[in-house]
Amino acid sequence: MDLDNKWAYLRAAGNPDWQTRPGYLPIVIDRIVEMLGELNLPLTVFTVGRDLVEDEDCVAIKSFDRMPRWEPANHSLNHLPWMHTMESSEIADEIEVTDARIREVTGRRPLGFRGPGFSCPDEVLSVLSRNDYVYDASIFPTSIAPIARAVFLMKTDLQGAEKERAKKLYGGFDSLRHPNHPFERNIAGHSLWEMPVTVMPFTRTPIHFSYFTFLASFSTLAAKSYFRTALWLCKVTGTAPSLLLHPPDFMGREDDSDLAYFPGMKMQRRDKLAIVRWALELYSTQFDVRCMIDALRTFDPAVDPDAAQLGHSRATGNNIATSTGQLAQSPSFQ
Ligand SMILES: [Zn+2]
User: Fold this and answer.
1) What is the pLDDT of residues 243-294, one digit of tens each?
2) Which CATH number among 2.40.128, 3.30.300, 3.20.20, 3.30.160 corresponds to the domain 6-201+288-320+327-333?
3) Which of 88, 93, 243, 319 is deepest in the core (most CB within 10 A)?
């Protein structure tokens, strides 16, 4: 889950109200924890550093501890989707300040990062390597990136320099060059895994939940059939689906009229929660769903999920890693 807050959506839409930093984390996290807890599903949460300041947000984020298993990960400090235009020092701040806040609030160290707007310049990868991150998850290898960007630019009220910078969003056709499965990079001698957001095999269309609930707002039947097909194609092509959730997937139109422009936000809360639960249940019956770091270990047994525990020694972790060999047939993650 990318734990994007309301202010980040308002800013992306060019709405000046974002500056008062309106948010919904306490309400929505409660719903997420409840539903995923009932389904016994784990969750990786990409958290924005700006939301690790106010007490009520920190308490809400800490309440993910009520889940059977969750993993805190880094989603930048300010959620600016144009990291590719930033200076090196700014990029380092975006990642390292959030890293420190996550440690302070959750008592754990993030091992993964996802750039806002699926932006993944080389400098980001260097900072992640320098900080001993295990994976980046900023690649979205979709065929519709140029369309998604065009729709964004058409709908947003962003002006001037910000609009210019937004013109590189989603990576354009470049994003199609990337594989639809995890792969390993070598950054100055450091191994850094890339965990792309999975798209539909062959068509490369999105299968994350905002897209799915957007389809469902037109036809539940069509959306369910699309999602079933996506999971089936993942199975037959041996693709472990990394499915992306956002907080509005747990909200309906009666929750927030300011977000009405967001895909799927025309649905009533009851209908939205029902369709999301249906999809999560199907996902959990067809795949062995894991946090990103746990799933990554099926690709690379040297990966040590316990490295997230502060004060953990690497040597101990390696022993744990080599002594556990029970890998599931169909690992998956979100
Ligand atoms: Zn985000």
Assistant:
1) 999 999 999 999 998 888 887 888 999 999 999 999 999 999 999 999 999 9
2) 3.20.20
3) 243
